[in-house]
Design brief:
alpha/beta, Aspartate Aminotransferase, domain 2, Aspartate Aminotransferase, domain 1, 3 domains, seven-stranded mixed β-sheet, 17 helices, binds pyridoxal-5'-phosphate, binds FE2/S2 (inorganic) cluster
Length: 478
């Protein structure tokens, strides 16, 4: 029966048509008979899924969700071990489970308040909001959904200063923020605001005294990230919050890499705004939130104008499947917190110990203020890019921005005072809920062997082994 469905129609239509065809085939009114209720659609979907699994034609086209979920080969060879958790995390299957019903029966617009389609979706949206708020001790009314931490950071960095611009035209942030904060701050500079970029010490930590001195009567916002995405350093949020409270300025933190992974309490830490991303906590991509304090109220100019959804702070119809997936991901972060933390810490310690056992390696960031799921190591006398090439069986990212077109080494490592060579030879390892001990064992062994191999090819390494101090050499040219 499936074979008579044209391939060009969309999956949703396919479901509807398959159902209609089956139900009304004898009456020969196949395509124009509407479905009665969404329960019918769900039933039809189930039947179609069952049929699909038995149909070689559809399996070949590779459209089933499960086929993608367990796909081993996406056309780029055998997939490597995934250790790039700061870039994104795999979707937890329980999250996907929560999301699926929004692509079938629960299709109502959550903002429709005149019928049950709207109410039933809205109920799910509010449940998700509660899970997200709970994790940081916020009120549900303080969570505004966005498309991700980039949008949340833009909302904070642009929205707050624009609202208070008549009297307050100064922003404080740091040099090691994510690009979206740095770029948003730069955009505000172009709008006539002043921005102070705080330095960090060799461990990546800000100096609290320097922060206090940087705040002026016309400062409206301090934006300091919670966990750094390159080196995993955790800033002293509670102390920063106390300073901001004392100085009466709003405190925004980019918690994309921290939310659900370290203890965060917006009240205890006096955080006024917080950016959160769903895809860093095993939720769907393209989804996030911004926490905006209500008491005392933080005012901001929305960066998106429209129908006034999300308390007028972020217009546009929500994507309920993404919202619900995000909510479930947050609920799971709370439920699994102890298990995740213990697991990640154990693997992180093993990996760090294994990598630092290689000579001339060093850990970047602060050993004492550190999220263990992000391990950044410099391998002296090895070019980072060559190492990444030699490690194609492991999905990693060099700490440097060299993956971008700029070919510049990491600005974060530079801010820590690392020289270009060391910044270029750094690699970030991201460990998460689904990383296994076997994977870590493999990675330690592979890196040890390949660093040794690459160093054997390096003339610098030869000189180091001969005891020549490389700093004493005057290089010509370059
Ligand atoms: C610290 C930090 N901020 C912001 C972002 C951007 O998040 P999103 O991908 O949700 O826009 C990321 C993700 O790379 C991040 O690591
Ligand atoms: S690590 Fe890529 S250019 Fe140095």
């Amino acid at each position: 029966m499936l074979r008579i469905i044209p391939r060009s129609i969309l999956p949703g239509q396919r479901v509807a048509r398959a159902f209609a065809i089956r139900k009304y085939a004898t009456a020969k009114v196949a395509f124009d008979v509407p479905l009665e209720t969404h329960t019918d659609l769900q039933q039809a979907n189930k039947e179609l899924a069952d049929a699909r699994d038995n149909s070689s034609e559809v399996v070949e086209s590779g459209t089933t969700a499960l086929k993608h979920a367990y796909q081993e080969n996406t056309g780029f060879g055998t997939r490597p071990i995934y250790l790039d958790m700061q870039a994104t995390t795999p979707t937890d299957p329980r999250v996907l489970d929560t999301m699926l019903k929004f692509y079938t029966g629960l299709y109502g617009n959550p903002h429709s308040n005149t019928h049950s389609y709207g109410w039933e979706t809205n109920k799910e949206v509010e449940t998700a909001r509660k899970h997200i708020a709970d994790l940081v001790n916020a009120d549900i009314k303080e969570i505004i959904f966005t498309s991700g931490a980039t949008e949340s950071n833009n909302t904070a960095l642009k929205g707050v200063p624009r609202f208070y611009k008549k009297t307050k035209k100064h922003i404080v942030t740091t040099r090691t923020e994510h690009k979206c904060v740095l770029e948003a701050a730069r955009a505000m500079k172009n709008e006539g605001f002043e921005v102070t970029f705080l330095n960090v010490n060799e461990f990546g930590l800000i100096d609290l005294k320097e922060l206090e001195d940087a705040i002026r009567p016309e400062t409206c916002l301090v934006s300091i990230m919670a966990v750094n995405n390159e080196i995993g350093v955790v800033q002293p949020l509670k102390e920063i919050g106390a300073i901001c409270k004392k100085k009466k300025v709003f405190f925004h933190t980019d918690a994309a890499q921290a939310y659900g992974k370290i203890p965060l309490d917006v009240n205890d830490m006096n955080i006024d705004l917080m950016s959160i991303s769903s895809h860093k906590i095993y939720g769907p991509k393209g989804m996030g939130a911004i926490y905006v304090r209500r008491r005392p109220r933080v005012r901001l100019d929305p960066i998106i104008s429209g129908g006034g959804q999300e308390r007028g702070l972020r217009s546009g119809t929500l994507a309920p499947s993404l919202v619900a997936g995000f909510g479930e991901a947050a609920r799971l972060m709370k439920q699994e917190y102890s298990a995740d933390t213990e697991h990640i810490k154990k693997l992180s310690e093993k990996l760090t110990k294994g990598l630092l056992a290689i000579e001339h390696t060093s850990l970047n960031g602060s050993p004492d203020h550190h999220y263990p799921g992000c391990v950044n190591v410099s391998f002296a006398y090895v070019e980072g890019e060559s190492l990444l090439m030699a490690l194609r069986d492991i999905a990693l990212s060099s700490g440097s921005a060299c993956t971008s077109a700029s070919l510049e080494p990491s600005y974060v490592l530079h801010a820590l005072g690392k020289d270009d060579a060391l910044a270029h030879s750094s690699i970030r390892f991201g460990i998460g809920r689904f990383t296994t001990e076997e994977e870590i064992d493999y990675v330690i062994k592979a890196i040890t062997e390949r660093v040794e191999f690459l160093r054997e090819l390096s003339p610098l390494w030869e000189m180091v082994k001969e005891g020549i101090d490389l700093n004493s050499i005057e290089w010509s040219g370059h």
